[in-house]
């Protein structure tokens, strides 16, 4: 900015007209704006993703909202097929993962939103750290059905490794389920880095969304 002012003063001292000075200033400003403008977002993510129960693609449905109850458990696979040949998590994961090349940099994330007690709640879940963010209403528990051995329990941040895969997620209704007055919007998506998000929300194409209504 100081350079623009200095150059403008030089133009004035040289007797340039106001229109010439304005044109010069506008040119400099346009150049600075272009210099700092963020590159256009290009989504090259090839992954299709879906939510499954017993090998079938989950679609919008209704369920009783009840305290201290698992209202849903979903498996996540890189496909949108209506019905799978197997219900085995590891078999399905490996089968559909191998349909793609060079996707190791992509990760799985989730987004949940609903209205309770006249307030909007939402949670962008990229790891177990935010699993209780929707307290006291809804808890989100992640599982790795490919690598977990022994007791099959939900993941904590201490469990996360470079090869951890979120193959399964459980929606646990904790308390005050009667205060939830809207359907629960639930999405699974795959992302690569922070460029896939705007204002804390995913804006890529690799996403699958359902509505869970109160029965």
Low-confidence stretches are none
Number of helices: 3
Q: Specify the biggest β-sheet.
A: 5 strands, antiparallel
What value does the Rg take, in angstroms?
Answer: 25 Å
In terms of quaternary structure, the protein is: single chain
Shape type? globular
Spatial strand order of the main sheet: 2-1-4-8-7
Structural class: alpha+beta
**Straight-line N-to-C gap:** 61 Å
Helix content range of the residues, please?
A: 10-25%
Determine the strand fraction and express it as a percent band.
Answer: 25-35%
The SSE string, one letter per element, is HHEEEEHEEEEEEEE
Number of distinct beta strands: 12
Rounded average pLDDT: 87
Summarize the structure.
The chain is α+β, with helices and mostly antiparallel strands.
How are the SSEs ordered, and which strands pair?
Blueprint: H1 2-13, H2 18-36, E1 50-53, E2 56-57, E3 61-63, E4 69-77, H3 89-97, E5 107-116, E6 119-125, E7 138-143, E8 168-173, E9 184-191, E10 197-198, E11 201-202, E12 207-214
Parallel strand pairs: 3-12
Antiparallel strand pairs: 1-2, 1-4, 4-8, 5-6, 5-9, 7-8, 9-12, 10-11
Helix pairs in contact: 1-2
Give a written overview of the molecule.
The protein has 215 residues and is of the alpha+beta class. 19% of the residues lie in helices and 31% in strands. The chain contains 3 helices and 12 strands. Helix 1 packs antiparallel against helix 2. The protein is globular, with a radius of gyration of 25 Å. The N and C termini lie far apart (61 Å). The model has no long low-confidence stretch (mean pLDDT 87).
